[in-house]
Write the structure tokens for this entry.
Amino acid sequence: MKAPAAVLLLLLACTWTVNSTADDIPKLDFKLLSQLPHSRSDFTQGLEIRDGVLYQGTGLVGRSRLQAFDLSTGELLRERTLPAPYFGEGITVLGDFVLQLTWQARKGFVYRRQDFTLLGEFPLGGEGWGLTNDGEQLIYSDGSNILRYLQPENWTVSRSVSVRRGSAPLHRLNELEWTPDGLWANVWQRDVLVRIDPESGQVTGELNLKGLLPRSQRRHGEDVLNGIAYNVADGSLWVTGKNWPWLYQLKVVDPADPSQP
């Protein structure tokens, strides 16, 4: 989400619901493969990788940007700022286009992928948080437990999915990422990624990333874990946080899967 976590401490009263069914959800592990420097001024809202390029969307009014980096070197290839009063949110790459949500303006923007030329905008029915796509439709979150599928031809919602952790709805879904193994999501203000079955909405795995950014490297102004990018070239996940100093490349490991090394 949106404003820095310190501004919204009251929302910490929201509980992480646990029940007997949820206890059966697989607890995933990871191997840290590599890391790249990440600007501490980037309030990351969305990440995505396409063809060796890492796309990032950042937030905060007056500081929201759309960026493209060479994944192998971290070199900034191009950048576009989002003018006030817009607060940038999730992004996704669909074909020759990059799409970017705004938080409360009830709209998103469409850019040409090649040079970030603004081509148009599209309406949202409410807040925009995370954004991804399944190759045909956009999928976005709004801070609730509902994921909405948006048709890019006419910007209508074709269907919605209620995300549940066991029998309980899982709220505060933020950044999203589509992968062959399921739909991944950040849960705002939790150092946990969840893997979701996009058809049923059931959480099928949880990845605890608490401590990924060592306490010794934390500074004033850093915010929550946010940002997930799947690299189809090697099957790895890249993650970061708002104003974090690193992008981390992870290999997700299921301890219960004997086929994994």
